[in-house]
């Protein structure tokens, strides 16, 4: 019988439309037949059931009900005593959606007919795993006094728990788990004096537990998890006190919105075997009274707010088998007494604040099979005694501060299947003994400080499926021997080491990988031919691996199987002859050439920057023009692309990042770029675009970055930028032909951090409303909103994309900012024709780091309170017509490291400060200034002194007037002297004057 049922169950799992379901049948003697009244009751009950697959086809009018599926009769009296009408949920999960849909279609529905009341001897009723979502639990069930077991779990009942159930005085087992029950529990539940087990988990019950629960002296198991009790935990425990507390063995209040501190009175439940308060908000210390529960075998306090240290007396729980305290705020060292928990098989203390070394006594936990101490602050070396845990199958010590070498004794853990030591400070070589871990399927040693070479006997780990050794300091050569028996390997992540792979040209690895990352290895100069044998490879990352070859056609034939493909930062050349399909593609920083490859709609991220791609991109953007593209990130900067941007971007509206910078594009921006309504980052810098910015861009209201610098755009700066692009943080219009005034509408950009309008033809005054640039007025950082959209979701994991970058002029030079871009706050209006005064409102931008107003026509004085701009590092006001003195407040700008005030009309003394006197004199020339760093000294009034010398009597001689007088005397006697003393010269001179006068007269006439 059992064998045939097992076959039917397996059949149900395999076929999408199951025709067989498991039921109990009556084990009756052949001469015993069911009672007519009970048969009629069952047939009436069947009429109100919805049976979509006709599972109760054997329930016929003339049949023997004791032989019907799901019916169990008494062997002697023939009374129906059990009804098994559950729809069994298969073990494990469904393999296909069709199987799950078939399972749902097999469920009973409808309603429960009161004819069940005629089954006077029914003591077991199970209708679990069905769908009665349209009806509440019938109150008539409370009149079925013979019931000892009632199972309505996973049946979709709704509404309140009928108080009539409190009349079932013979009930031993009540299971209402996982329905849609609401409201409170009636106090009449205290009338179930015989009940042994109650399960009300996974409903929407709330309110307070009735104190009458404490009167159920026979109750051994109560499960109330996944409800909305929202009580203090001590109130719950108080409700359960009484005779119940002496006998209760299982208490489950997981996921119940409980809070408060756990009282010491918990120790009164002396017979507790299982205790779970998982996933609540219980805080405070774990009470030491827990050690007074000698029968406790299972304890789960995970996902709470417990703090403080672990009780030192935990070692008294000799029968404890499973202890789970995952994800709390437990701190302090691990108690040495844990080594006394000789029965412990499962210990999870991960994701806490535990610190200090691992106790050597942990090596005494000989029964331990599962140990998770990951995500803590455990430090010090790994104890050699860990090698004694011969039963251990799972060990997670990742994300700690463990240091020192790996013990050779770890090679004794022959039962270990999962080992995570990643993200620690472990140093030294990899022990050869690790090759003895023949049961390992998962090994993570990534992000440590391991040195030396990779032992060859790693190649003997035939069951190993996942190997992480990335970000270490491993060196040397890896050969075919290292992989000789890794037939099960599916994931290999070894990036960030200095290893060299040497394999023959005809090597075919014994594995078929799905994920491979060998970034920074030496795989070149030839493209590794063995990669072409990996028919299941989905993610390939071999960036910066010294490959300087052409990609073979056999590799491109595999391109459709990839989801992640990263060949960046190599010297790979040649054309890409295929359509690219991978979701995430990074081929940047190579020497790829020819036209851009076309992409399928599967691509989400594409980086082809810093290559030698050329020609038009019309075929790229217009490929399958009516097909919607899912791509969100596109970077084509730093290539040799040319021509116009085609007007076929309508189906690219998932784009968030578009970078076409540093190419040779020309023409105007197509109107269809305005259809990119999700666009947040637009880079068109350093091309030959001309015309006006299209008004259709006003539809791109999510823009955070706009960089169109170094083009030939003209016209007025559009005012709609301030109205529509309210999230803008970077606006760079440098080196174009924009003219007219700076629109006041830009002042609405409260999030703006970088504004560069330099090298244009702007005129008029600087708007006083610049004070509305809120982000520049504070020293708060943007929390990296600039890069919040730069990630790629791959199978639930967020993979970061390249950071937002910008070319900014700072201190007279162009710098590219990326990693610290979110911290930069800058205004550059230089090299325009701006006039008027520097508005005093500029000084309210106290988070500003760079202010460049040079090469304009600004007049007036420097704002007196410029010293309030305490974070400014760079000021350039050169080549203007500023007048007055340098404000003394400028001496308080302690972060200032670049200042240029040259070629203005400034006067007076340069204020004294450590900063101002450290600059070159050239930064102040072209003014009427004095004092250091200039060589001109100043009087007390700040006026440049006359240069005089003193004679012996102390009188000063002004040599300017002396030299002027001497010049007059020499000039007079040099010309007039000969005329006075030589008569012939005198006569010739006057004849010359007469002749000149005659000539002038004739000309006038």
UniProtKB/TrEMBL annotation:
<dbReference type="InterPro" id="IPR046956">
    <property type="entry name" value="RLP23-like"/>
</dbReference>
<feature type="domain" description="Leucine-rich repeat-containing N-terminal plant-type">
    <location>
        <begin position="36"/>
        <end position="73"/>
    </location>
</feature>
<dbReference type="Pfam" id="PF23598">
    <property type="entry name" value="LRR_14"/>
</dbReference>
<dbReference type="InterPro" id="IPR055414">
    <property type="entry name" value="LRR_R13L4/SHOC2-like"/>
</dbReference>
<keyword id="KW-0677">Repeat</keyword>
<dbReference type="GO" id="GO:0005886">
    <property type="term" value="C:plasma membrane"/>
</dbReference>
<keyword id="KW-0675">Receptor</keyword>
<keyword id="KW-0597">Phosphoprotein</keyword>
<keyword id="KW-0325">Glycoprotein</keyword>
<feature type="domain" description="Disease resistance R13L4/SHOC-2-like LRR">
    <location>
        <begin position="362"/>
        <end position="542"/>
    </location>
</feature>
<protein>
    <recommendedName>
        <fullName>Leucine-rich repeat-containing N-terminal plant-type domain-containing protein</fullName>
    </recommendedName>
</protein>
<keyword id="KW-0433">Leucine-rich repeat</keyword>
<feature type="transmembrane region" description="Helical">
    <location>
        <begin position="959"/>
        <end position="981"/>
    </location>
</feature>
<keyword id="KW-1133">Transmembrane helix</keyword>
<feature type="signal peptide">
    <location>
        <begin position="1"/>
        <end position="26"/>
    </location>
</feature>
<dbReference type="Pfam" id="PF00560">
    <property type="entry name" value="LRR_1"/>
</dbReference>
<dbReference type="InterPro" id="IPR013210">
    <property type="entry name" value="LRR_N_plant-typ"/>
</dbReference>
<dbReference type="InterPro" id="IPR032675">
    <property type="entry name" value="LRR_dom_sf"/>
</dbReference>
<keyword id="KW-1003">Cell membrane</keyword>
<keyword id="KW-0472">Membrane</keyword>
<dbReference type="InterPro" id="IPR001611">
    <property type="entry name" value="Leu-rich_rpt"/>
</dbReference>
<keyword id="KW-0812">Transmembrane</keyword>
<dbReference type="Pfam" id="PF13855">
    <property type="entry name" value="LRR_8"/>
</dbReference>
<comment type="similarity">
    <text>Belongs to the RLP family.</text>
</comment>
<dbReference type="InterPro" id="IPR003591">
    <property type="entry name" value="Leu-rich_rpt_typical-subtyp"/>
</dbReference>
<keyword id="KW-0732">Signal</keyword>
<dbReference type="Pfam" id="PF08263">
    <property type="entry name" value="LRRNT_2"/>
</dbReference>
């Amino acid at each position: 019988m059992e064998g045939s049922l097992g076959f039917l169950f397996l059949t149900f799992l395999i076929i999408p439309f199951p025709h067989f379901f498991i039921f109990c049948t009556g084990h009756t003697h052949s001469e015993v037949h069911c009672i007519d009244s009970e048969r009629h009751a069952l047939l009436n009950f069947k009429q109100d059931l919805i049976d979509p697959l006709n599972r109760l086809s054997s329930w016929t009018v003339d049949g023997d009900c004791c032989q019907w599926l799901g019916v169990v009769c008494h062997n002697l009296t023939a009374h129906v005593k059990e009804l098994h009408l559950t729809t069994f949920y298969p073990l494990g999960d469904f393999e296909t959606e069709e199987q799950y849909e078939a399972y749902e279609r097999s469920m009973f529905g409808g309603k429960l007919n009161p004819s069940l009341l005629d089954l006077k001897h029914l003591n077991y009723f199970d209708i679990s795993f069905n769908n009665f979502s349209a009806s509440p639990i019938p109150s008539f069930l409370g009149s079925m006094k013979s019931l000892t077991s009632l199972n309505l779990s996973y049946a979709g009942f709704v509404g309140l728990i009928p108080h009539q159930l409190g009349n079932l005085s013979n009930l031993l087992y009540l299971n209402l788990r996982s329905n849609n029950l609401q409201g409170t529990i009636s106090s009449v539940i205290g009338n179930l004096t015989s009940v042994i087990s109650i399960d009300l988990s996974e409903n929407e019950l709330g309110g307070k537990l009735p104190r009458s629960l404490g009167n159920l002296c026979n109750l051994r198991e109560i499960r109330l998890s996944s409800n909305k009790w929202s009580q203090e935990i001590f109130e719950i425990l108080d409700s359960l006190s009484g005779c119940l507390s002496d006998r209760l063995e299982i208490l489950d209040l997981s996921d119940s919105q409980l809070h408060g501190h756990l009282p010491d009175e918990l120790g009164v439940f002396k017979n507790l075997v299982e205790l779970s308060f998982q996933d609540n908000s219980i805080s405070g210390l774990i009470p030491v009274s827990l050690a007074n529960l000698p029968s406790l075998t299972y304890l789960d306090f995970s996902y709470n707010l417990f703090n403080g240290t672990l009780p030192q007396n935990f070692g008294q729980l000799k029968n404890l088998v499973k202890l789970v305290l995952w994800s709390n705020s437990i701190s302090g060292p691990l108690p040495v007494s844990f080594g006394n928990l000789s029965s412990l098989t499962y210990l999870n203390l991960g994701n806490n604040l535990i610190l200090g070394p691992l106790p050597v006594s942990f090596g005494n936990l000989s029964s331990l099979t599962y140990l998770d101490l990951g995500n803590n602050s455990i430090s010090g070396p790994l104890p050699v005694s860990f090698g004694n845990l011969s039963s251990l199958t799972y060990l997670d010590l990742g994300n700690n501060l463990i240091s020192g070498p790996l013990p050779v004794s770890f090679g004794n853990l022959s039962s270990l299947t999962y080992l995570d030591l990643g993200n620690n400070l472990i140093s030294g070589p990899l022990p050869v003994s690790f090759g003895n871990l023949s049961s390992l399927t998962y090994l993570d040693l990534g992000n440590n400080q391991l040195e030396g070479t990779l032992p060859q006997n790693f190649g003997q780990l035939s069951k190993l499926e996942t190997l992480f050794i990335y970000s270490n300091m491993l060196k040397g050569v890896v050969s075919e021997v290292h992989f000789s028996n890794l037939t099960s390997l599916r994931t290999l992540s070894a990036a960030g080491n200095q290893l060299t792979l040497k394999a023959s040209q005809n090597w075919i690895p014994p594995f078929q990988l799905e994920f491979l990352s060998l970034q920074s290895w030496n795989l070149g100069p030839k493209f590794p031919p063995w990669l072409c044998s990996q028919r299941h490879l989905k993610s390939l990352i071999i960036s910066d691996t010294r490959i300087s070859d052409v990609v073979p056609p056999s590799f491109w034939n595999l391109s459709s199987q990839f989801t992640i493909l990263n060949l960046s930062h190599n010297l790979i050349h040649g054309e890409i002859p295929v359509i690219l399909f991978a979701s995430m593609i990074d081929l940047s920083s190579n020497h790829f050439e020819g036209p851009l490859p076309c992409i399928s709609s599967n691509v989400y991220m594409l980086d082809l920057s810093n290559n030698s791609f050329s020609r038009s991109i019309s075929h790229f953007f217009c490929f399958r023009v009516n097909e919607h593209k899912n791509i969100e990130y596109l970077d084509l900067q730093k290539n040799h692309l040319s021509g116009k941007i085609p007007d076929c971007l309508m189906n690219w509206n998932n784009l968030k990042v578009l970078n076409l910078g540093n190419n040779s594009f020309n023409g105007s921006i197509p109107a269809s770029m305005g259809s990119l309504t999700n666009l947040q980052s637009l880079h068109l810098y350093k091309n030959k675009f001309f015309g006006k910015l299209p008004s259709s861009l006003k539809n791109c209201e999510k823009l955070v970055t706009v960089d169109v610098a170094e083009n030939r755009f003209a016209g007025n700066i559009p005012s709609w930028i301030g109205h529509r692009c309210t999230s803008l943080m970077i606006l760079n219009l440098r080196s174009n032909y924009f003219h007219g005034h700076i629109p006041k509408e830009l002042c609405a950009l409260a999030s703006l951090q970088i504004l560069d309008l330099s090298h244009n033809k702007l005129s008029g005054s600087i708007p006083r409303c610049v004070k509305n640039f809120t982000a520049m007025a504070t020293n708060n950082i943007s929390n990296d909103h600039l890069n919040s959209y730069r990630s790629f979701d791959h199978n639930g994991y967020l993979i970061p994309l390249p950071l937002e970058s910008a070319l900014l002029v700072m201190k007279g030079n162009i710098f590219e900012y990326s990693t610290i871009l979110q911290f930069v706050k800058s205004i550059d209006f230089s090299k325009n024709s701006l006039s008027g005064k520097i508005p005093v409102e500029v000084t309210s931008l106290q988070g500003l780091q760079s202010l460049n107003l040079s090469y304009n026509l600004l007049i007036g004085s420097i704002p007196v309170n410029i010293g309030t701009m305490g974070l400014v590092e760079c000021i350039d006001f050169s080549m203007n017509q500023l007048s007055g003195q340098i404000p003394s407040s400028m001496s308080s700008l302690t972060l200032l490291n670049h200042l240029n005030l040259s070629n203005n009309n400034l006067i007076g003394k340069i204020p004294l400060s450590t900063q101002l006197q450290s600059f070159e004199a050239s930064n102040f020339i072209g003014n009427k200034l004095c004092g250091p760093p200039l060589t001109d000294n100043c009087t007390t009034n700040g006026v440049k002194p006359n240069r005089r010398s003193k004679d012996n009597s102390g009188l000063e001689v002004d040599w300017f007037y002396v030299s002027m007088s001497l010049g007059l005397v020499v000039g007079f006697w040099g010309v007039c002297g000969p005329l006075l003393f030589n008569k012939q010269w005198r006569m010739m001179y006057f004849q010359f004057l007469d002749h000149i006068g005659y000539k002038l007269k004739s000309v006038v006439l």
